[in-house]
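Forum > Structural Biology > Help requests

Title: Can anyone predict the 3D structure of Transposon Ty3-G Gag-Pol poly?

Hi all, first post here. I have the sequence for Transposon Ty3-G Gag-Pol poly but no way to get a structure on my laptop. I'd be grateful if someone could post the structure tokens.
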Amino acid sequence: MTTSTATTRANLLSVPETFSDGDFGLWLRKFELCSTANGWKDDEMLKRLPTLLSGKAFVVFERLGDDKKEDFKVLIAAIKEAFGGDETSKHIAMMEFRRRARKPGEDIQVFAYGLETLLSRAIPNIGNDERDTLLKQQFIEGSSPALKRELLQRPSLKYEETVKIAQQLDLTPELSSPNTDHDVNLTRVQRENVSSSESTVVRQLKESVEVLTEKVNQLSASVNNISEVAAIRMENPRRGRACYNCGGFNHIANECRQPKRRNDRRRNDPGQRRNENYCFVCVVTSDISPVIVNIGIKPHNDTRETTKG
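Reply #1:
Sure, ran it for you. Structure tokens for Transposon Ty3-G Gag-Pol poly below:
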């Protein structure tokens, strides 16, 4: 029975999750509550605490001197100093406090507690009035735009009252969503973008119509010119090929109905006429001065020499 009772008690022990890095003060508060529930005194807490440290926290514990590991309160003070007691850690905590905003779907109480924890780390010994002022300012600033507008209309409320009113207003669907104003603004921007896009398309279409109109006008002018030229050609038809036999047009010698001119061999022999060309007969004198003495049509087989007389 004794063993069974001891096992049952061991199974009922309440312990927090292991701590590695982050808000040591918050984790320590949970550890103290678990210790009270388990009936642990300082000696037992001193032995239990190192077993719940990991990562950076365990390294910090290992680097502490033995004199700081013999007393629970001294050990807690040393770990607190390592996790936020220096000026750099306070400055970082204040920066996080100023950037802290309510996350989508985050409960109002959780958001408020997160601000309170960061501020206590940044300014451990802050006065109550200054604390309430800073918490109220950041709480309103970190809320959604719609909820922020509602809270700004109640400037006389204190911090705790502001949190309660915010929790009541958060039940309203229009104010609970942190993206409500963002969606409205996005819709307006989308409408403006669509309007701008439509204006651009209309302008491009107008420019295209103007270009097409100009091309149609040019094409019409070209068609008119072609029609005028065709009309002129119809009024003045070109003459056909000349007949070597009769001198007429629109037929050739082989198709000519006139009697053949047999006396003119060259006229009946197109090949003979093609072999004729224009010849320039020159006289070469002793003083190398060329003188053109005759220009005429000569057959290739009729060559003459002219000498100086």
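Residues 1-9, 180-187, 270-309 have pLDDT under 50 and may be disordered. Residues 33 and 143 are 31 Å apart (CA to CA).
Shout if anything looks off.
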